[in-house]
C-alpha cells in the first residue's frame, strides 16, 4: 500500500572479527507484520537480531527504521531503542534486586510518565496474572519463565514499533510459551511489528505472516508463512 516499511535491512553484511556471519541480507517488515526468522544452528539468526537492535554494526549495508538510516547515523543501541526497536531476550533486562512491581513501575514511568504507571500495571497484570500475584517478589528470584513474562509485560506496555524476540521460548514450559505467544499476538494486533527468532517453529509459523530462512549467513528463501512449511522442515533440524 505504498507505506514505507517500519524496518528494512538492505544488503546487510556483518562479521565477528575475521569471521563473516551475514552476507547481503535484505529483509523488510511492514507495520503490524510478523516475520519468522528460521534456520539451523549458527545460520546467523541471532546476528540478524543483534543488527536490528544495534548491538552489531553491519560491515556493509543499511538498517532503516521508518525510513531513517540508522547505519549512516552510526547509531548506538540506545538510539535503536529510542527509534522504537525493542529486544526481548531471556530475562536479562530485569533488575534482579527490585520487586516485580518496582521493575514495571520504573519502565512505565519512563515510557508513559508518572500518570501512566497505574494503567500500565493494570494492563501488565491482566496480560500476566502471575506477575500480579508476585508483585512483591524480587525479580531475581523469579523463575526463568516468569522473568521473561516480566520483560514481555514491559514491552507490551511500552509498545515499540518493532519487537525483536530472540528464542523467547527457549527452555520454557509449554503453558508459559503459550502465554508469551498470546501476548505477542496482542502486541501485533496493536500494530507492533514482530521479528521472531524461534526454535519452536510451529508457534512462530502460526503467528507470523512471512518467513525468512537463513543458511550460512544468506537468506535462502523468503515468502508467505503458508508456503513455508515444507521449506522450513528441510531448512531446519529441530533439536531433540
Ligand atoms: P543458533 O540457532 O545456534 O543460536 P544463530 O542462527 O542464531 O544460531 P548466530 O548466533 O547468529 O547464529 O551465529 C552465526 C555465526 O556467528 C556462528 O557461526 C557463530 O559461531 C558466530 N558468532 C556469533 N557470535 C559471535 C561472536 N560474538 N564472536 C564470534 N563469532 C560469533
TrEMBL record:
The domain of life for this entry's organism is: Bacteria
Read off the SUPFAM superfamilies from this record.
P-loop containing nucleoside triphosphate hydrolases
Asked if the record carries the keyword tRNA processing, the reply is: no
Biological process annotations from GO:
L-amino acid transport
Organism classification, top ranks?
Answer: Bacteria, Bacillati, Actinomycetota, Actinomycetes, Frankiales
Gene Ontology molecular-function annotations: ATP binding; ATP hydrolysis activity; branched-chain amino acid transmembrane transporter activity
Quote the CDD domains the UniProt record gives: ABC_TM1139_LivF_branched (cd03224)
Fetch the InterPro entries from UniProt. Answer: AAA+_ATPase, ABC_transporter-like_ATP-bd, ABC_transporter-like_CS, BCAA_Transport_ATP-bd_LivF, P-loop_NTPase
Could you list this entry's UniProt keywords, alphabetically sorted.
Amino-acid transport, ATP-binding, Nucleotide-binding, Transport
Q: What is this protein called?
A: ABC transporter ATP-binding protein
Q: Which family does it belong to?
A: Belongs to the ABC transporter superfamily.
Cite the ABC transporter domain residue spans from the record.
7-239
What species does this protein belong to?
Answer: Frankia nepalensis
Amino acid at each position: 500500500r505504498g507505506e514505507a516499511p517500519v524496518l528494512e535491512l538492505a544488503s546487510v553484511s556483518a562479521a565477528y572479527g575475521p569471521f563473516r556471519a551475514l552476507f547481503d541480507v535484505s529483509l523488510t517488515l511492514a507495520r503490524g507484520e510478523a516475520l519468522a526468522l528460521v534456520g539451523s544452528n549458527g545460520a546467523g539468526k541471532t546476528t540478524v537480531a543483534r543488527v536490528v537492535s544495534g548491538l552489531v554494526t553491519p560491515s556493509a549495508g543499511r538498517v532503516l527504521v521508518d525510513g531513517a538510516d540508522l547505519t549512516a547515523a552510526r547509531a548506538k543501541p540506545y538510539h535503536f531503542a529510542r527509534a522504537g526497536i525493542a529486544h526481548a531476550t531471556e530475562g536479562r533486562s530485569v533488575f534482579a534486586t527490585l520487586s516485580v512491581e518496582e521493575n514495571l513501575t520504573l519502565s512505565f514511568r519512563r515510557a508513559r510518565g508518572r500518570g501512566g504507571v497505574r494503567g500500565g500495571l493494570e494492563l501488565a497484570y491482566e496480560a500476566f496474572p502471575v506477575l500480579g500475584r508476585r508483585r512483591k517478589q524480587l525479580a531475581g528470584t523469579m523463575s526463568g519463565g516468569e522473568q521473561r513474562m516480566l520483560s514481555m509485560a514491559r514491552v507490551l506496555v511500552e509498545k515499540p514499533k518493532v519487537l525483536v524476540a530472540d528464542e523467547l521460548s527457549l527452555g520454557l514450559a509449554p503453558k508459559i510459551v503459550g502465554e508469551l505467544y498470546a501476548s505477542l499476538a496482542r502486541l501485533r494486533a496493536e500494530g507492533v511489528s514482530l521479528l521472531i527468532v524461534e526454535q519452536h517453529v510451529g508457534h512462530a509459523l502460526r503467528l507470523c505472516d512471512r518467513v525468512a530462512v537463513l543458511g550460512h549467513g544468506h537468506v535462502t528463501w523468503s515468502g508467505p508463512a503458508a508456503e513455508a512449511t515444507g521449506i522450513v522442515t528441510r531448512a531446519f533440524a529441530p533439536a531433540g
